[in-house]
Amino acid sequence: MSYDLVVIGTGPGGYVCAIRAAQLGLKTAVVEKRKTFGGTCLNVGCIPSKALLYATEMFDHAGHGFAPLGIKVPAPELDWTTMGKHRDDTVAANVNGVSYLFKKNKIDSLIGTGRIAAPGRVEVVGEDGQVQVLDTKAIVIATGSEAASLPGIAIDEETVVSSTGALVLADVPKTMAVIGAGVIGLELGSCYRRLGTAVTVIEYADRALPGMDAEISKQFQRTLEKQGLTFQLGQKVTGVDKVQGGAVVHFEPAQGGAAGSVEADVVLMAVGRRPYTDGLGLEGVGVAMERGKVVIDDHFTTNVPGIYAIGDVVRGLMLAHKAEDEGIAVAEIIAGQAGHVNYRVIPTVVYTMPEVAAVGESEESLKASGRAYKVGKFPFMANGRARAMRHTDGFVKVLADAETDQVLGVHMIGAVAGELIQEAAVVMEFGGSSEDLARTCHAHPTMSEAVKEAAMAVEGRAIHV
User: From CA 339, how far away is CA 464, in angstroms rounded?
Assistant: First the structure.
């Protein structure tokens, strides 16, 4: 079996890469170890978590948000089984969609574990042990990542769970300890808090979302605390002991001090993810690695000719949309075109309520680089549509170059921040200024007007504050 391209892994990076390659006329095959396509994102990550986030948000809104609108309903009753069905149905629709796209684009798909036997050769071992050998001009490694843990703490997906196990708990726990105040921990922690779980978040850094703009992180933490989440910040987790009916998480101040502990029915390990390259045979073919990641150049090429890598297994943020852009770019490069990814304009979104979104530089990164900048901010409290929808939490912040006015970064916390951030990304992709954004007519009343007003505020001319 001979191909122009074989892609190992069908997550967002892999399946998008394969489809783009097929569009460009390359004979393409994909290899997937799961029985369904879509990787972590579609099967046990982005998609099922967003299904639960939305469902629990609606549950919470029905219980607390209807009365102020003049809607009288009985207290909502949770049907955890049906909520799980919504999650599973959402996953099935997405993974089946990828399967359809493979067939539509005449991409051969093989279910089994892929291994690079040599440059230009991939061996696929099926569930039945049968081996198929694929000869190919190019190979793209798109095997993604898996949940990481702390030393000495085992994930059993029952008491100590990763994000995978947290999505399919048999029952809603009364208490949960979340280790890590990053995106995954706060999204899933907020999910269960809405359903009545008492959630304690333990974080090594001194603030939630340690990688985000500090002002946004501070506001976000306050908002989550109002929703009932409890934070233990600046704490190093030293161990987890299983006890009858749950576990005890032990921690101590990162800077020294008295140790503490918290008991919980379920412990969610959310300390990040690690690249998944097990069994790929990379060492055997001499592919260079660094800190567990595949080393690539600016064209996604490894040190071995004909072998490329994208997504979570390479440098940069572990984000599905980053992997997708890389998948398109590498397919175009392999086809002889000029694929490219602008890493300065990769949005990040936290899908809680309210959402948090960011693109570009933060105030901290600009200060560290010594670049002079201006700031414009606008609160959703002053936005008419936000008031009408009772979603007034949060604000928009625009950072622009002090001399050229080029937009360097945009950060926001608000009900639809994940959608609004795309406007900022487009402006930044074209090298636009805060004035460009401020002078673009926005429909009224919309939440997006807050973005315009924040851009106007860069020059001190916001209207509604």
Answer: 43
